[in-house]
Amino acid sequence: MRRLSLALMVLGALVPRSGGAQSLFERLNLDRLRLTALGANAGPVRPSRAHRAQSYGVYADYGYIARSWHVVFSATYWGSHFRDEFVDTFEQRLREQVIDPSGDDTLELGRINVSDIALEVDLRYTPRPNAVLRPYAGGGLGAHIINAESPFINDTFVESALDNISAGFATFVGLDTQPVGRFSVGLQARVNLLSNLRYWTARALVTYFFGNQPPSSPP
């Protein structure tokens, strides 16, 4: 009953009321969302507890919802493995619990792989949307699917603790330019913060607009 009541409250906020009152959907200008461009990005990623890796992503620009503010949806992947110092610390803790009277037992965890699939929505602020050089900044929210794999931890509580779906926050700055027709190129520096992981990426972006120019910022 509590969930039903909450759902009805949310639905009531989104549905327009009589007398011309706007719904929450309209007040946030989300009715302006239109697919205006598609793009791809790639670049190095530096996780806090894993080795450097390469990230790959695709994104869809849904245009402006307010003056200089527009919405971008993205999906990004990277894969790496935990750095030796973190694995060695785990190995040492395990050795301390092993009873080895002869002192000849060995323990080798090997490589523990880790990957992230991020599904995010960004809100970008572009102060000069129609300029030749278009700097921007913003933030985003997303769902991150973290996966860890190793023969030593497979099907154990350790793997269950490392594998999770986590909410994350991102902040970024970037620069775009449109040298040829409907294509633009750009660079972006980005930091992602999760509950148990953080990483930064430097991305090169290529965007294709469904028009000769990027969509103008609404007044």
Describe what you observe in this structure.
The protein is of the alpha+beta class and 219 residues long. It has a single domain (30-209), classed as Porin, CATH 2.40.160.20. The chain is 17% helix and 50% strand. It has helices spanning 2-14, 24-27, 84-97, 157-162, and strands at residues 37-47, 53-66, 69-81, 113-125, 133-149, 164-180, 183-194, 198-209. An eight-stranded antiparallel beta barrel has the order 1-2-3-4-5-6-7-8.
Q: Specify the structural class.
A: alpha+beta
Named CATH topology: Porin
- For the record, the CATH architecture stands as Beta Barrel
The main sheet comes to: 8 strands, antiparallel, barrel
How far apart the termini lie comes to 43 Å
Give the tags.
219 residues, alpha+beta, 8-stranded antiparallel β-barrel, 4 helices
In short:
This protein has 219 residues and is of the alpha+beta class. The protein is built from 4 helices and 8 strands, in the order ααβββαββαβββ.
Question: Helix and strand layout, with pairings?
Answer:
Blueprint: H1 2-14, H2 24-27, E1 37-47, E2 53-66, E3 69-81, H3 84-97, E4 113-125, E5 133-149, H4 157-162, E6 164-180, E7 183-194, E8 198-209
